[in-house]
Design goal:
This protein is mainly alpha-helical and 430 residues long. Helices cover 65% and strands 5% of the residues.
Length: 430
């Protein structure tokens, strides 16, 4: 169900069980590559593949003593593999294992996020087409500007989210790098062929050059892509919140049967999911800053990045996954009030047609300055008196004497604002 957030999907990727499974896969692939080169006996490889296994609980117990996660893992493997364990991790360093398998986890998480984005795009597209010609007022500075349609508003979201999708794809591609180049990246103890084999089997590219680690700019690029995706969701959610204000009430986050909005005020219907999305976007932006600060490491590597990534990569992907799922449910069941949109559009008594009138006067021969002064004067009277703008305009000979009556009547129609809606939809949806 789209309404239910399936935390285990993303949480599983960052679980110890999945991480150690990736570590085991890496070590066996490295042994396979070394066996091809004659560095690991074929019979030893067969026994390693048959006996290699781990227990999460035991690894964590060993780590409590040795204070080194990779050594704890290898020690647990050795308990099962026996004497052949001397061929495991042969000529490798911890970061060969850690960075390469981290890339696999990031790729898995990124691909799950892409499915979430694709689902949200489909839902936004469906609602945009549904409200393609649902007329509402467009606002600038929060003030009535000119008419738009609700479909166009949603189409802007769709267009923006397609950019986020493309950026996320590029970031996943950039971060999908493995390295099996040894302690400082020189392949002193393992051939580049091992790296090429392992990375190919794991669906990664081999980093063209590495130190003890894959350089952290690619990780920063990935988290930045997550942060920008969250920022777009924040923009969309903020718009829903603004449209749900009691004074506006043009759209409303779904309010389920049995839901309660306030412990003290039974009437409340609050945009709590959209507010949650906004809050998570703030959090993910902070993770992007931390990822950028990880780029600067001492010499060929230090581990100041490690503790940061253990927090920001699971948290950022889980938070964005949650935000995408929840906001998709909001858009899918968003309550739209076309009658309120019409009522709100009419609240400004027709001054929204001021630009059309300005252009008609310019076509009639007035300078832009003269035309602007005439229209603004009439608009200010409407602001102050509450009269209909058309009534104010028709009482001014300086305007009616210059514009043909039929053209003047056409000024106060919505047709021009809807004329290119199909064109815009075609451009965006292609």
């Amino acid at each position: 169900m789209i309404e239910r957030y399936t935390l285990p999907d993303m949480g599983r990727i960052w679980s110890d069980e999945n991480k150690f499974s990736k570590w085991l896969q890496f070590e066996i692939l490295a042994c396979e590559a070394m066996a091809e080169a004659g560095d690991v006996p074929a019979e030893a490889l067969a026994r390693i593949k048959q006996n290699a296994r781990f227990e999460v609980k035991r690894i964590l117990e060993i780590e409590e003593v040795v204070h080194h996660d990779v050594i704890a893992f290898l020690t647990n493997l050795a308990d099962h593999i026996g004497n052949d364990s001397r061929y495991v991790h042969l000529g490798l360093t911890s970061s060969d294992l850690l960075d390469t398998t981290l890339a696999v986890q990031i790729k898995e998480a990124g691909e799950l996020l892409l499915t979430r984005v694709a689902t949200l795009l489909d839902v936004i597209k469906t609602r945009a087409l549904e409200h393609k010609r649902t007329v509402m007022i467009g606002r600038s500075h929060g003030v009535h500007a000119e008419p738009i349609t609700f479909g166009l508003k949603l189409l802007v979201w769709y267009d923006e989210l397609t950019r986020r999708e493309a950026m996320l794809k590029a970031a996943i591609e950039a971060v999908s790098l493995g390295k099996v180049s040894g302690s400082v990246g020189t392949f002193a103890h393992a051939s580049p062929r091992v790296e090429e084999y392992v990375c190919r089997k794991l669906g990664l590219k081999a980093a063209p050059i590495s130190t003890q680690v894959v350089q952290r700019d690619v990780h920063a690029e990935f988290v930045s892509a997550l942060a920008l995706c969250a920022a777009s969701l924040e923009q969309f959610a903020t718009e829903v919140r603004a449209l749900q204000k009691t004074e506006t009430l043009e759209a409303e986050e779904p309010f389920k049967k049995g839901q309660k909005g306030s412990s003290s005020m039974p009437h409340k219907r609050n945009p709590i999911v959209c507010e949650r999305v906004v809050g998570l976007a703030r959090l993910i932006r902070g993770y992007a800053v931390a990822a950028m600060e990880n780029v600067a490491l001492w010499h060929e590597r230090d581990i100041s990045h490690s503790s940061v990534e253990r927090v920001i990569l699971p948290d950022a992907t889980i938070a964005l996954d949650y935000a995408l799922v929840k906001f998709t449910a909001v858009v899918k069941d968003l309550v739209v009030y076309p009658e309120n949109m019409k009522r709100n559009l009419e609240k400004s008594n027709g001054i929204i047609f001021s630009q059309k009138l300005l252009l008609e006067l310019a076509r009639a021969g007035l300078s832009r300055e003269e035309a602007y002064a005439l229209v603004q004067e009439a608009a200010m009277e409407t602001w102050q008196t509450g009269k209909q703008f058309e009534q104010t305009v028709r009482a001014r000979a300086a305007i009616t004497s210059r514009v043909d009556p039929d053209r003047l009547s056409a000024v106060f129609l919505l047709d021009d604002y809807l004329r290119e809606v199909d064109t815009i939809f075609a451009r965006v949806l292609k």
